[in-house]
Each structure stands twice: as C-alpha cells, then as structure tokens.
C-alpha cells in the first residue's frame, strides 16, 4: 500500500482504511486527509507515513496509529468552536489533525526535545491555532481551562482528577487507562455535572505510558503507581 512514487494513492488507500474501520465523522476524515503525516515522521519513516501503524519518533516514543488518532478524535465529539487539550504532543501530528476541526488546541509534552520539535514543526507548517507546552500533562493546563474536550495519547493507571476538573460541564475526556503498563481500555469520560462523570468503554488499546504526578511514576526505569489522592 505504501508508495513513495504515488503519495496521493497511498493517502487515498489510507482514508479508505479509516472509513472501512468505521470512522464516520466527515470532519475527522477531512482533517486526516488535509494533514501531511509524512511531515511529522523522520526521513527514514516517510515511506511508511500512510501505513495504518504507529511509527517510532525521538525519545523512544511513537506517532500513534492513524486509525487510533481518528477513533480518539471522533470519540471527542468535537464542534468547530471547541477548545481542546491534548496530553502527549509527541510528533505534533494529532494536534495538527485536531487543529483542522476546532478553534484552538493546547498540547503538552513531557520531553523537552519532542515539545520543541513539535512546536517548530507545527509553526513551519502554519498550524497557528496550536500551542505547545513542555510539562506534566497529567496536571492539565489550568491557565487555559476549562476545555470542551481533552485527549490523552499515553496510557495511565487511572483517570487524572486534575483533567476531569478542567472539563466544562458536558465536556469529554478520551483516555487510555488500566493497571498494565502497555495495555489499556480506551475510555470516554463525560463530565455530566460539577461532581459527576459518566464513563464509556471504547475498547482495548496499547499506548506508551503516561508518566507524571497523576500517571505512572518513573522510578529509575521502574513504573509504579502513585498512592491514591485522599479527599
Ligand atoms: N499524539 C502524538 C502524535 O501525534 O505524535 C503521539 C503521542 S505518543 C503515543 C505519547 C506521548 O505522550 C509521548 O511523546 C510521551 O512522551 C508523552 N507523555 C507521556 N506522559 C506524559 C505527560 N505526563 N505529560 C505530557 N506528555 C506525556
């Protein structure tokens, strides 16, 4: 399917895969068509840019599988006037896709080098409604809250309370969580009132770990869970 000589054909095949796998939201499909995934991967990965698979990026991280990016974006039930927070900027690709659908995107990355590369890449490509912060995304970005939707592109042991608190009432948090480091359930948490949420299970996924105050603790390469917050 991958073709350096016919990138247009490769992209059409890639869009057909997304549709076949059940992505229906026209705005999501249009955004995936508009954003050049090849510009978010290294030169050695360019030929695989329109394969439906994750690819390695710097710092031992990954650019997510396109189907998963589309699935999570669709699950956020976005409207054009929405403000969205993404945790885990990685290459900046998913932020670019989101920026084609909503008014404003904020994205946080814990690795300084990835945050810098994503910021420069997004600016060079003209995605001027995206702001990139380097920091611990499990704590959100309180200065710009509340958000209509939040997406977390790394898997944590549980749902970070700080993120739920930064949603508008009616806002959606799409997040992979679970007790295993590399295997999670994808959840959509809807904040239905000040203190209540509803949770839907969208199926099994495999993400790199969400490391931070309300994620996994990286203790010399060993992942441990933080003790539960006391009310
Ligand atoms: N959305 C990215 C893209 O489009 O390229 C892919 C993200 S990659 C699967 C997950 C990212 O989450 C990694 O870059 C990792 O460094 C980052 N990450 C993990 N824990 C984090 C945290 N607490 N705050 C911010 N970023 C975090």
UniProtKB/TrEMBL annotation:
Biological role: Catalyzes the methyl esterification of L-isoaspartyl residues in peptides and proteins that result from spontaneous decomposition of normal L-aspartyl and L-asparaginyl residues. It plays a role in the repair and/or degradation of damaged proteins.
EC number: 2.1.1.77
Main enzyme class: transferase
Classification via InterPro entries: PCMT, SAM-dependent_MTases_sf
GO CC entries: cytoplasm
Catalytic residues as annotated in Swiss-Prot or TrEMBL: 64
One Pfam family hit: PCMT
SUPFAM superfamilies attached to this UniProt entry: S-adenosyl-L-methionine-dependent methyltransferases
Protein source organism: Marinobacter orientalis
Protein name as catalogued: Protein-L-isoaspartate O-methyltransferase
Catalytic reaction list: [protein]-L-isoaspartate + S-adenosyl-L-methionine = [protein]-L-isoaspartate alpha-methyl ester + S-adenosyl-L-homocysteine
Top-rank lineage group of the source organism: Bacteria
